[in-house]
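A quick aside before the break. I want you to see a complete sequence-to-structure record at least once, exactly as it would be stored in a machine-readable document. Don't worry about memorizing anything.
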Amino acid sequence: MKGKQTLLVLEIVKQGPIGSYELLKKMFESDYGDAYRAMTTKSDRASAAKAMRIRYRNFLYKLKQDGLIREERTLGATRFVILEKGKIKLAALRQREPFPPPGSYKREEGTGITIVAFDIPESSRKKRDWLRNVLRATGFTMIQRSVWAGKMRIPVALLRDFQELKIMKYMEIFQTTKTGILRQLEL
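That is the input. The structure line, written in tokens, reads:
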């Protein structure tokens, strides 16, 4: 989809100010990063990494020039913030692609093990596939195709998106401090 990178960056920045390094890391944790890593071999990783940094800087420059994000520098740290025009662009991109990019959610370590079980109907296959990708991107491990576990908290933004996509009625999310056989999975 054209604009997939823009959608990913705007979704990430929408959650709050984020540093350049964290933004790049999130992009690599997404499907975009998987595709990029698959293209490179060990022998050309150094030149590919340099090319990626240049492409990344150019991409952020274009987003700033288009008035979608703003760069703020405070105490030597650089943070990116979404602007009103960026929110409008994000809404337009979301209409074309109703599912937020899987890598756009912050990983939040939890105190116990969070288990997510779902039974989304076949008629909503795209939502079900999206949910699996999001759970994988946020650090969860698949126990069965519809049961995932991890020492993660579900980000609030993700819970809102579950509501917005109307899939909460097909899901159960709970947390436990007892591991049982899950101990073997090294969560």
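Two observations worth writing down. Residues 45-65 form the longest helix (21 residues). The radius of gyration is 18 Å. We'll return to this after the break.
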